Structures are given as C-alpha cells and as structure tokens.
Task: structure prediction
Amino acid sequence: MFLHEKTVNVLLRILEAEDRGEEVYPLSISKDIGSPYSYVSKVLGEFEKEAIIDSEYVGRTRIVKLTESGRELAEKLRELKKVLSKDFVSRKKLTLLKNFVREYENLDFGEIEAVFAYAPILAELEEIINHLEQKDAEACEQAKQLMKSVECRLKENVK
Result:
C-alpha cells in the first residue's frame, strides 16, 4: 500500500504541509493530489490504524497530523521519490560516454580522427542535456561538465 503513488502522495502532502506549519485536512489533501475524497479518507483511516497519523476533530473538521513514526516514514519516502525521479537511462548513457572519453585520453588523434571521435560524443551529450534540463539537474550538470571537457580535448587536437 505504501508504494502506491497516490498513497505516497497523501503522506507526502501531510509532511509538506506540516513542514510549512499548516494544518492538514482530508479535503485539502484530496484536492491537492487529485484523488477522490473517499479514497483519501480510506487511506487516512489505514494510516491511523497503523499509527502513521493521528487525527482530531475540531467541530466537524478533521485535522490530521503525522506521528513520530509517520514523519520518519514520510521523510524516507520523500528521499526515495527523489531518487526514483532520476533519469537512469540518461545516466547510463552518460557513464558510457565518460568511459569513451577516458579511453580516448591515451590515444594520439590527428585533426580528422579527433573530429570523428569526439563529434558523436558531443552530439549525444547535447541531446542528453536537452533531455535532462527539466528532469534531472544533477545528471544534466555532469553532462555539461563532460561536454566542456570534450570540447577542450577537441580544440587541443584541432589547431
């Protein structure tokens, strides 16, 4: 149940609101994550049974709060969600390109060979950077650094 995306979003919404010092209501969670109120209410009931949240009624309004264990769980899920949002395919391509560049360090290229060796790498890096700009800032920065390094190597060989 915890790894269902909507369920994780319910828990993370509570964590984010508490981090901002806000009170959390089931209806606001429902609106924020785009799930039916009945679903959110069911999830919150399960969370309460498992001592992940506590809730209290103020008048007719239900306010939910994370328990200490619930906060710990939510923080770990936030970190896991952050890791899972990385673009692993592009990161693998980036690793392969780094390996090619490392292998080319020891080779003595002439002008033409350098262009044929490095131009495809630069083209692939440009594509990776364009793809990653909004998705994975860390990998995008690594790709930009590798691109600068490859451009320098190319300039050294083509004079």
Summary: The mean pLDDT is 92.
